[in-house]
Amino acid sequence: MNRVDGADDRYVVGVDYGTLSGRALVVRVGDGAELGTAVHEYGDGVISTTLPGGRTLPPDWALQNPQDYRDVLRYAVPAAVSAAGVDPAAVVGIGIDFTACTVLPTLADGTPLCETPELRDRPHAWVKLWKHHAAQPHADRINALAHERAEPWIGRYGGKISAEWQYAKGLQILEEDPEVYDRAERFIEAADWIVWQLCGTETRNVCTAGYKGILQDGHYPSEGFLTALNPNFGDFVAKLDGPLLPLGARAGALTAQAAAWTGLPEGIAVAVGNVDAHVTAASAQAVQPGRLVAIMGTSTCHVVNGAEVAEVAGMCGVVDGGISPGAWGYEAGQSGVGDIFGWFVEHAAPAGVDSHERLTELAASQPVGGHGLIALDWWNGNRSLLVNHDLSGMIVGMTLATRPADIYRALLESTAYGTRMIIEAFVDAGVPVNDLVIAGGLTNNALLMQIYADVTRRPLNIIASAQGPALGSAIHAAVAAGEFPSIHEASQAMGRVHEAVYRPDPERARAYDALYAEYRALHDHFGRGGNDVMLRLRAIRNAAVETAATTHEAPLEVVA
């Protein structure tokens, strides 16, 4: 399309809130050129063992401090503008994306409950990060009741609601700390909360409302359903409902306070919030149906647009306009990918090979199947297709001849098998997946990328930006600022992708077909009720940890 006159002189800022840090990116409107970036690490990171005040947390908790999110605006945004060397007065909009489902309870004015002095030592008053998995029993109850009542929305989510989503986390708060639940006047996605901080206007974006808030065809789950879960849960929708806006819309104008934080002009456009994975489709030029984007980092999220609505077993959801207006957006995901590789390097690889680079070099020299191993990629639970975060990882086939590089390659391959399961579920349900665009930090590992091409039997395109989510947020900011009429046109002008960088090798693909069949057999046996040993072990572990915490049991002392 023809560029808007003078667009070279205008800029937008995209802010990507990740699991451990937030990144700001300054982008030129006319061509998507990335001019400056900066990262701010969260001061409290992931709070998983103790609150800042010292209170111990149970297993499977993952919290965050909302002040860390404000600090990204205060430090990363001005630093990025400075690095870009542009006049802040030429910035016309700002957009943000967030990990999801990351939610927090607040007062009616948006004050987080954890910032009220009397609730600061209450775990349920804090932000629940996406990988907070302690609500799995509550998710199980939601799913069982939804099927028992034949709720019409359950099929849109592959038959299961995740423990990561709003309802399971909200129900956990109600049943474990009713006072915090009652004090929470709003229960809001962090994406919408930070937009509220920027423009002073409370909004809800259709992406998180649909995928994480069970909003389908204009309706949330009924009050009757919620009260059947718990008589005091009937007001939950009132806590999470709010003004709903489509992606790419203008949520409001930058307030004087937020302008002081960021150094940007007061009154510029603030785009509606979004999810890090879904916003990346714009930067990857993948808003057309059939092109699946896999955003590969600590976890992986898979998103693809479809022309029609379909119910896909085990999916995270299908939402009208969930990726871009005018299409049905499908989402799936894997709860652990880069985290699995990082765990092995940090905690299991011996000295001398305890780096991704060295392990990759050794693993790359192996033929397909040469290590004799199959792994299940559930080290942080299973998001799709099984939707059970109590599942755990597994490696089969180890012998005394097994070496670290063998295990490392098996872990890489296991995540590719998990992605193939997701792709096949889409295709079997009638949602085309023609090719893949890969985004995220793991694109730097050429061995991993080639494994994915061979395992999935599809060409891999690589996003041309190292900051896919931040660029996608900047693209949405340009639309919100009126620089482009739609996300599609902004994506074509500002996004970019390297086409068919990795192609499947027929011989390796055939070898992987045999290994994938073994993965599927293990997947179905341990994930679909053939043997629930993983769930039993998780229950034993949780009971032991909780007993030790309450009795202050000392560790066993070994006397030589």
TrEMBL record:
Database matches in InterPro entries: ATPase_NBD, Carb_kinase_FGGY, Carb_kinase_FGGY_CS, FGGY_C, Ribulokinase
SUPFAM superfamilies per record: Actin-like ATPase domain (SSF53067)
Superkingdom of this protein's organism: Bacteria
Keywords on record: Arabinose catabolism, ATP-binding, Carbohydrate metabolism, Kinase, Nucleotide-binding, Transferase
GO CC terms in record: cytoplasm
Catalytic activity annotation: D-ribulose + ATP = D-ribulose 5-phosphate + ADP + H(+); L-ribulose + ATP = L-ribulose 5-phosphate + ADP + H(+)
Pfam families: FGGY_C (PF02782)
Classification lineage: Bacteria, Bacillati, Actinomycetota, Actinomycetes, Micromonosporales
GO biological processes: L-arabinose catabolic process to D-xylulose 5-phosphate
Pathway assignment: Carbohydrate degradation; L-arabinose degradation via L-ribulose; D-xylulose 5-phosphate from L-arabinose (bacterial route): step 2/3
Family statement drawn from the similarity comment of this UniProt entry: Belongs to the ribulokinase family.
GO MF annotations in UniProt: ATP binding; D-ribulokinase activity; ribulokinase activity
Occurrences of domain Carbohydrate kinase FGGY C-terminal (ranges): 293-481
Major enzyme class: transferase
This protein's name: Ribulokinase
EC number(s) per entry: 2.7.1.16
